[in-house]
Amino acid sequence: MTSYDMLLLRFGEITIKGKNRSRFEKAAISHVKSLLLPFPAAKVIREYGRIYVVLNGEPWDVVSESLKQVFGITSISPVRMIPSRLEDIVNAAKTFIQSMPSDKPTTFKVSARRVWKQFPYGSQEMNRLVGGPILQACSHLKVDVHHPDLDLRVEIREQVTYLYSEVIPAAGGFPLGTNGKAMLLLSGGIDSPVAGWSAMRRGLEIECIHFHSYPFTSKKAEEKVIELAGVLSRFAGQIKLHLVPFTDIQTSLAGTGQDNLIITLMRRAMLRIASSLAERNGALALVTGDSLGQVASQTLPSMNVIGRATELPLLRPLVMSDKNEIIHLAKKIGTYDLSILPYEDCCTLFVPKSPTTNPNLRIIEKIEAGLSDLAGQIETAVRDTESLIIRPNEKLERTSAEDEVIQENWF
Ligand code: ATP
Ligand code: MG
Fold first, then answer.
1. CB neighbour list of residue 109: distance below 8 Å, 6 or more residues apart
2. Range list of H helices, 56-160
3. Which domains are assigned to the chain?
4. CA separation (Å) from 192 to 63, 100, 197, 198, 227?
5. What gap in Å lies between CA 358 and CA 216, rounded to an integer?
6. pLDDT tens track for 269-299
7. More exposed terminus of the chain, fewer Cβ within 10 Å: N or C?
8. CA torsion 357→301→221→350, rounded to 10°?
9. Ligand nearest to C-alpha 355
C-alpha cells in the first residue's frame, strides 16, 4: 500500500468571498482540529481554498475516514511529498503507480502543475517527462488523457512536490454552525436524527428537543434519545438536548375526546414549546423529520395545519425523500441501529385508530380554545424542561433550562 505524508482537504460550495470565506474556513479548521485530537502528531496547515493535514506518521486511512465527516469539505486526497527535483519526482511517480493494487488502473494520465515557476520544466513538459518512464516501467498501463482510470497529479512547489491521485468524497455542505442555529425536534425514530444531520451539514448549529411522557414512556426510551443525540454530537463536538415533560399536555389533549385529531393537536403543542425554547436559546428555525405523505400527520393538509402553530421557519430536510433513502443515510450516519430499538415514543402511546389526514384548522383552533389552560401548560412544560449537554462518549452534564448555553467553543 502506498504510504502518504499528508491529506489535502478541498472546500466545496464556499465560494463566498471576503470575510465570510475566512469565517467558513476557520469553522471547518476548528472541526478538523477537534477530530484530530486522537492523532496528536498531525498538523493542520491552512491555504487559500484548501486545508492540509501533515500526518507526521499518523495513519492516513484512519485519519481520512474521520475527516470525511467534516462539513464544508467535499473531498480528500492523500498526498506523497517529495523533493522538487526531476529525478526524485519521476522515481516517486513510478513507485506510486506500482504500489497501486494491480487489478486497479489500466489507463492513466499525468496532470502536472508547476506552481513554482522557477522549476526548469513546464507543466506540459512534465506530463511527458513523468509519463514516459511510467509507461516503460509498467507494461500493463496505457495513456488515456480523456477518461483515465488513474489521474496522477503532480503539483510542483518550491519546497516540495505533491503527488496524488485518489479523491475520497467527503460530507460536503457548509462548515458547522456557519449558517446559524435551529432547534431539532428529535424523536426516537429513524427520520429526525437524519434530518438533524442534514441540517448540520448545511451549516446549522443544532439543539435537540425531545418530548417524553414519563412515566408512560420508559427511561429506556429516554436513554435511546440521549444515545441518538450522542451520535449526532460526533459531528458537532457537543450538542444540547432539551427533555420536555409532555405528559400533562398529552393527558389534557386526550381528555378532549377528539381521538382522530389528537396527533395534530400534539404536534401543534410541540411546535409551540419548541418555538419558545428556540427563542430562549437564540435559534431562528425548527427542524423536523417530516417526509411528505409518510404518515397521517405528514400529509400536505396536516403539515399546513400543524405548521401554523409556529411563526418560525419550519425546516423539513427530508420532506421529499423516500424512506429507503432516509434509511440509507441513517445507516451511514450511524443512527439506524439505535432508531430501530423498539421503545415506545410519547406519540405511539396515543395513536388513534384512524388519525386524520385532512384536519380542519378552524376546528383545531376551537378545540384548543376550549382547553382551559393550554397556554399555561405549555409555559410549565418549557419551565420544567431539563437540558443536557451531550458529548461523544462522555458522561452527562445535567443543567437547568436557564443555564447559559456554551456556544463559542464547540470543540
Ligand atoms: P421519526 O422517525 O423522526 O420519529 P416519524 O416518521 O416517526 O419520524 P412522526 O412520529 O410523525 O414521524 O414525527 C414527525 C416529526 O415530529 C419527527 O420527525 C420529529 O421531528 C417530530 N417528533 C415526533 N415525536 C417527537 C418527540 N417525541 N420528540 C421530539 N420530536 C418529535
Ligand atoms: Mg416518530
1. 127, 131, 143, 144, 145, 148, 150, 151, 152
2. 60-67, 86-98, 123-137
3. 1-80 (3.30.70.1510), 84-159 (3.30.2130.30), 181-410 (3.40.50.620)
4. 28, 41, 9, 10, 14
5. 28
6. 999 999 999 999 999 999 999 999 888 889 9
7. N
8. -40
9. 1
For ligand 1, residues with CB inside 6 Å are 185-187, 189-192, 209-211, 288-290, 294-295, 297-298, 345-347
Residue with CA nearest ligand 1 atom 30: 185
pLDDT-based confidence at residue 404 (cuts at 50, 70, 90): very low
Report the candidate in 246, 266, 264, 187 with the shortest Cα–Cα distance to residue 221: 187
What amino acid is encoded at 400 in this protein? Answer: S
What's the CA-to-centroid distance between 301 and ligand 2, angstroms?
19
Q: How far is the CA of 24 from the centre of ligand 2 (A)?
A: 34
**Ligand 1 atom 11: residue of nearest CA:** 297
Ligand nearest to the CA of residue 195, numbered in listed order: 1
Cell numbers linked to 162? 505533491
Type of residue found at 243: L
